[in-house]
Amino acid sequence: MAKSQNTFKSHDNTEIVYFKHLPEAEKKAVVIITHGMAEHAQRYDDFANFLNQNGFVVYAHDQRGHGKTAGSIDNLGFFAEENGWQKVANDLGELVKLAKAENPNLPVFLLGHSMGSFITRTYIIENSDKVDGVILSGTAGSAGLLGKIGLLITNIIMMFNPKNTPSPLLDKLSFGDFNKPFKPNRTKFDWLSRDEKQVDKYVEDPYCGTVFSVGFFNDMMKGLELVNKKETANKVRKDLPIYLFSGSKDPVSKNGKQVKDVFEMYKNANISDVSMKLYEDARHEMLNETNNKEVYNDVLEWLNSKLIS
Predict the structure, then answer these.
(1) pLDDT digits (tens, 9 = 90+) for 197-212
(2) Helix, strand or coil, per DSSP, at residue 31
(3) pLDDT at 309
C-alpha cells in the first residue's frame, strides 16, 4: 500500500490537496472519500488502508477551508466569498474526473461523511451518471425552522462583518446540544464516538474542531436545504446504488431519524437500490466507533456486492 500527497487545480484555479492510496495487489475499483466539517482527509487513513488491502484505490481530498488545502490554521472554516457550496461540490467533480482518468476501466464509488455526505449528495444531483455508487455516512435531513432562523442570523451578521469571521454563536446554535445526551461530558466532542481514544485524537488535532466562519454556516445551511428537496432527489438516476449508515445515537441526524428520512426520500424518488444500516447505541463517526471494524466490513460487503451486480 502506498500513500502519496498531491494537488490539483480546481475549476477556479484553487489548489486542492488530495491523498491517493494505492493497493499493492490488483485494483478492483475506486473509492473517493469526502470528509466532514472541521476535520480532514488524513483522518481516513486507516479506513483507506483497509480498502487498499481489499483491492480498492482510494482518493481523499482536503476540502476548501480544511486541512492542507486551507494551508494554515488561520484559514480554516471558510469556503469562498461567493458560491462556496457549489465550488466545493465542483471540487469533488474535478477529483472524480482525475480519478477516472487515472483508472479508466474501474468503477468509481463516492463515500461522504456528514458535511461530506451533503457535498456528495449535491454532486449527484447533476452528475449521478458519472459514478457507480454512493455511500453516505452520518448524513442528515432538513434543519427546518431552525435552519431558516440560522440562515437569517448569518445574513444579518454578514451585513456588518466579513464572511470569513468566525462565529461562536452559530457554532453554539448548531452543535451546542449535541453533547447533552452523553453527560457527564468528558470533552466537548463526546458525541462523535464512544471510542475515547478517537475523540481525544480529534480534540488534540489542530485541524479539527475549529469554530467556523459565518460565511461557511451560510453556505452549509443553504446546501443542506438543497439536498433535502424532493425535486433534487428526483434528478438522481434511478439505478444509482445508495447505502446510508449511521449510529442510532447520532445527534446530527436526531438519533438516526433523519437518516431514515433521507432513505425514504430517495426511495420515494423511485431510486431502486437504496439500503440503510443504523448501529445500535453508536454515535456520529461510525468509521471511528468502537465497532469500526464491523462497519468497515459492512461497507466492503456492500461495495463488493455492487461489483458483482
Answers:
(1) 999 999 999 999 999 9
(2) strand
(3) 62
Fold (topology level) of 2-308: Rossmann fold (3.40.50)
Strand, helix or coil for residue 235? coil
What is the C-alpha to C-alpha distance for residues 173 and 184, in angstroms, rounded to an integer?
20
Q: Is the pTM of this model over 0.90?
A: yes
Q: Name residues whose C-beta falls within 8 Å of residue 298's C-beta, 6 or more positions apart in sequence.
A: 245, 277
Tell me whether strands 274-279 and 2-9 are parallel, antiparallel or unpaired.
unpaired
Q: How far apart (Å, rounded) are the C-alpha atoms in residues 119 and 126?
A: 12
* C-alpha angle 106-33-297 in degrees, rounded to nearest 5: 80
150: nearest Cα among 216, 226, 75: 216
The arrangement of strands across the sheet holding 274-279 comes to: 2-9, 15-22, 56-61, 29-34, 108-113, 133-137, 242-247, 274-279
Q: What region, left, alpha or beta, does residue 56 occupy, with left being phi > 0 and alpha being psi -120 to 50 degrees? A: beta
Q: Domain locations in the chain?
A: 2-308
- Give the whole-angstrom CA distance, residue 8 versus residue 16: 5
C-alpha cell at position 81: 466569498
> Which grid coordinates belong to 226?
438543497
The crossing angle, in degrees rounded to 10, of helices 144-160 and 214-227 is 150
Q: Which residue has the cell 461557511?
A: 216
Q: Indicate if the alpha-carbon torsion angle 240, 107, 18, 8 is positive or negative.
A: negative
